[in-house]
Amino acid sequence: MADIPPPPSEEPVAPSFVKGSQIVLQVGERRFVTTRGTLTGGSGYFEGLLSGCWGDEQPDGSYFIDADPVLFDHILRYLRRGVLPVFYDRSKGFDHALYTLLLEEAKYFQIPRLEKWIADKMYIQVVKVSYTAEELAGAMSHSVTLPADVEVEYHPAWKNTKVYICPRGIPVHRGRPEACGKLCKTVQGDASVEYEEVLELQMMVVRRCTIVDRDSCVEDRCE
Question: Is 70 helix (H, G, I), strand (E, B) or coil?
Fold first, then answer.
């Protein structure tokens, strides 16, 4: 008779866990789960905290950090990937208030590269804005397809313009002296060329393109 395997245990089996492979941080009212290597790779603060010399580990194995969790989210994002933050909005510009708050966190957590990035305002050099202007004469309608990162402003204005009048009064020759042939020139004779002043819509089209140098935000590329 074949052996009957024992029934499965009613108690769930805890997954294997290597002490120190994961670190749980209680930052304000939020919990963050990361690794020891992530925290100690660029922060002198966490090198000391996780050295075992401070004795700040909580009974559940987590570490309490007295900091703003919203700001700490940016700190941990940097420690994980080494990408320097760019807080920029096309309509509002740089978020200098956020940079000021994050600078103090970079100092507190002893992250030299991030501190230098903010203190020296190196992030300003990463964002460039390109402008181009084009004048459209007599444009009653204008249609164009542009990339999503290009903003367009239209500045209309009315302008007095002289329009050529054919001496024979031919409508299709209006504004087109090159269309007049020998008969038109014969009728013109020695008389002065006739022009009519009309109001013409002039449209100034200004295109604004925001360019972000992403390579400068990556590890070791902005030094």
Answer: helix
